[in-house]
Design brief:
This protein has 247 residues and is α+β, with helices and mostly antiparallel strands. It is built from 8 helices and 4 strands; from the N terminus they run βααβββαααααα. The longest helix has 27 residues, at 15-41.
């Protein structure tokens, strides 16, 4: 692939390439940890009064998983720039640093998803069919996740609609099928993206020092188990002024 005029290339076996690779992989591991954490913690919000925030939490789980996936392949969406794979052949890898967003959308998250879905097309054939929902835009709109998150996060009417729908439909035994429509779709997208990103991380043997400051000592798996999956909500309701809220 020929480089575009004005495009800077990061070529394998150069100091800049090595520095970028190290930083990108560390960031991928951080984002992967955050993606799994959001996916897990969304479960603690599956109540009528917090269902709307469960949706927002799942959105960010999707966002961190998608950006971790890009980073593992060397790609990034930056402020006013983006980095894409130019040549992927081992021993001759090159990354293109491109000016501009490469998207007609105006919002930063809308642009991210537009670029992500375009980049993810090449991964669809190698991903298990049940997980491909994470690599294709919902209702063929690259901005669906961002628009839906904004609708629920910034419009109290829609947030309470989600709460009402959750209260009417949720059944723990039928989870996640009993989630209301928007939350159910966002859950499916988040879960798929998290599992795809984890699968590639396993295949690539992703292991950096990015999570070193987090205890306990050990691998990413150990840290996820001890810091994300094992802890339970600390039961702090009695520590706040609950009786004064019930007026």
């Amino acid at each position: 692939m020929a480089s575009m005029p004005g495009t800077r290339l990061l070529r394998e076996a150069t100091l800049d390439f090595d520095h970028y690779r190290d930083c990108s992989l560390r960031d991928a591991e951080r984002r992967l940890f955050m993606a799994v954490s959001h996916y897990r913690r969304s479960l603690d919000l599956m109540t009528p009064g917090a269902a709307w925030w469960a949706h927002v939490t799942l959105y960010y789980g999707s966002f961190f998983a998608a950006s971790a996936l890009l980073a593992m392949f060397g790609a990034r969406v930056l402020k006013g720039r983006r980095i894409e794979v130019n040549t992927g052949a081992a021993g001759h890898q090159a990354l293109s640093i491109l000016g501009g967003w490469g998207s007609t959308h105006t919002g930063s998250h809308q642009r991210f998803w537009d670029i992500f879905y375009s980049s993810a097309l090449a991964l669809i054939p190698v991903v298990n069919p049940p997980l491909r929902i994470g690599l294709s835009p919902v209702t063929a709109r690259a901005t669906w996740q961002t628009e839906t998150r904004n609708l629920i996060n910034y419009d109290t009417h829609h947030a309470l609609q989600v709460a009402e729908q959750f209260e009417a439909s949720f059944d723990k035994q039928q989870f996640p099928g009993s989630l209301p429509g928007l939350v159910q779709t966002q859950f499916a997208v988040c879960e798929a993206l998290v599992l795809i990103a984890l699968s590639f991380a396993k295949d690539f043997g992703l292991a950096t020092d990015a999570l070193g400051a987090l205890g306990p000592a050990g691998t990413r798996r150990t840290k996820l188990r001890r810091l994300v999956f094992d802890p339970r909500p600390p039961g702090l309701v009695r520590k706040i002024k609950r009786s004064q809220c019930l007026v």
